[in-house]
Amino acid sequence: MSLKGRHTTDVLLSEFEKVINYHHIERKLVRLITNNAANNIKVFDTILLHDFEAYFENHDVNNDNNNPLENDNIEEIFDDDLNEYFELTRLADDIIQSLCENLELLRLPCFAHALQLVIKDGIRHASNAAAALTEVEKIVKFNHSSVVYAEKLEKLSMTIPYATKCR
Q1: Three-class SS of residue 16?
Q2: Of 25, 47, 77, 81, which is most buried with the most CB atoms under 10 A?
Q3: Half-sphere exposure (CA, 13 Å, Cβ side) for 132?
Q4: Sign, CA torsion 137/141/144/149
Q5: What pLDDT score does 26 carry?
């Protein structure tokens, strides 16, 4: 599902509740894995693993803006006509209460995203790796701008994927 507009805490919480209701998993939800963006942390701030979150506090401070280059391109399962059929309830309080009573926490930061941030920081400080990646980036850009080069790769059953940048 792709969210339209700004990814504010209210919008994220509303969509979270829609998905929970739509799939009838109110009492089945065990964990929620999100990236470490400030807006995700803020939405679920009462149910975080507080000791683990401190590591990520400074990484995504200004991420309340919707950047279309950073969003997943997942098919949207809700459209405006279906929204009127959803009876939204405030599940967040129930889920929080249930999880707190059981001493369990809902939201966990995505380990792959955290690892990617560590690697990105490491590459930034390794000048040889940064120079090599700059050259690879030039080759990728050339591939995607040259039909002749792209066709040669296609004949070899090869492709060069687009870069996926993550903060």
Answers
A1: helix
A2: 47
A3: 5
A4: negative
A5: 74
Where do we find the tokens 């939201």? 107
29 within 8 A of 95, measured Cβ to Cβ: yes
- pLDDT, the chain, mean: 70
Integer Cα distance of 76 and 84 in angstroms: 16
- Long-range contacts of the stretch 110-113 (C-beta < 8 A, 24+): 110/33, 110/34, 110/35, 110/36, 113/35, 113/36, 113/166
Cβ-count burial 130-159 (b if 16+ within 10 Å, e if not): eeeeeeeeeeeeebeeeeeebeeeeeeeee
Q: What is the pLDDT of residue 89?
A: 41
Going through the chain in order, the beta strands assigned E by DSSP cover 32-34, 107-109
pLDDT of residue 156: 92
Give CA–CA dist 19/30, Å, rounded: 14
* Dist CA 11 CA 3 (whole Å): 9
Residue 125's CB: how many other CB atoms inside 10 A?
8
How many angstroms separate the first and last alpha carbons of the chain? 21
